[in-house]
Amino acid sequence: MDSYHKDVCCRAFNNAGYLFFYYRNDYSSSCSCLLKALDIAEESGNAGILPCIYLNMGNIYINYNDTHASDSLYRKAFHASVKAHDYEIMITTLSNLTISAMSRNETQSVAEEIAVFRHQQVPKREMRAYINDVCKAADRLLRGDNDGAIHYLGEARQKVDTKYTPERYTVGCDMLIATLLTRSGRHQQAIEVLRHIEKSTDGVALDLQSEACGMMSDVYGKLNMSDSAMA
Dihedral through CA 217, CA 67, CA 139, CA 79, nearest 10? Predict the structure, then answer.
C-alpha cells in the first residue's frame, strides 16, 4: 500500500480495537487489532497515531490489573503526545497515569509527567479544567492531605466535559475517592460511593461495575461483613 492507505488501515485497526474494548468487552480482539495498528504505524513511521494506540493498549492492561505494563504504555502515549502536541491524548493519558498511581499510593511516580504537562502551553479545550484539578489532588496527596485530595477529585468530576465516554472519567474519580476514604478508615462512606458506581455503570460500563463490586467486597471484608462481601 501507499502511505495514505497504510494510514487509513492503521486508523481503522485502532478504531476497531477501541470499539472491541469499550462496547464489546472483547479484550482479545481489541488487543489483536491494536497490535496490527501498531505494526503498521511503526513500519510506515506514522508517529502521529502512536499516542492513541499506546493509550488504547494501556487501557487493556489496566483492566487486567497489570499496572507495570499499563504505566509503561501510558507513559509512551503521554510523551509521544507531548511531541505531537496532541493535547487530547496528553490529558487522557496523564489522567489515567495519575489516578492509577494515586490509587496505589504511588503518587510520586507521576511527578515528572505532571511537571512536563504544566510546562505545556495547553490551549483552552475540553477536559483542561478537569486535569488541572486531578493534578491538584495529586499535589495534596503528596503532602499527606487526604481530605484535600478528595476535595479536588470531587471538583474534577464536576468538570468532565468530554463527549467521549465521560462516565469513565467521573467513575474514575469516584473510585479513587472510595479508595482514599477506605485508606483513611471511612469505610461506610466508601461503600456509599461504590454503591452509586455499581448502579450508574449497570449496562453502561461492565468492566467498571466489576471493579466497583470487587472494591466493595474488599471494604466489607475489612468490616468483617463476610455475607455482604460474598454478595
Answer: -150
pTM for this prediction: 0.91
User: For the segment 76-121, what is each residue's pLDDT rounded down to a tens digit?
Assistant: 999 999 999 999 999 999 999 999 999 999 999 999 999 999 999 9
46: left (phi over 0), alpha (psi -120 to 50) or beta: beta
Residue 225: Cβ within 10 Å count:
15
Task: State which amino acid sits at residue 37.
Answer: A
Question: Are 97 and 81 within 8 A, CB to CB?
Answer: no
φ and ψ of 28, to 5 deg? -65, -50
Gap between the Cα atoms of 231 and 216, Å rounded: 10
pLDDT per residue as tens digits for the range 47-76 = 899 999 999 999 999 888 899 999 999 999
Which has the closest alpha carbon to 192: 202, 205, 178? 178
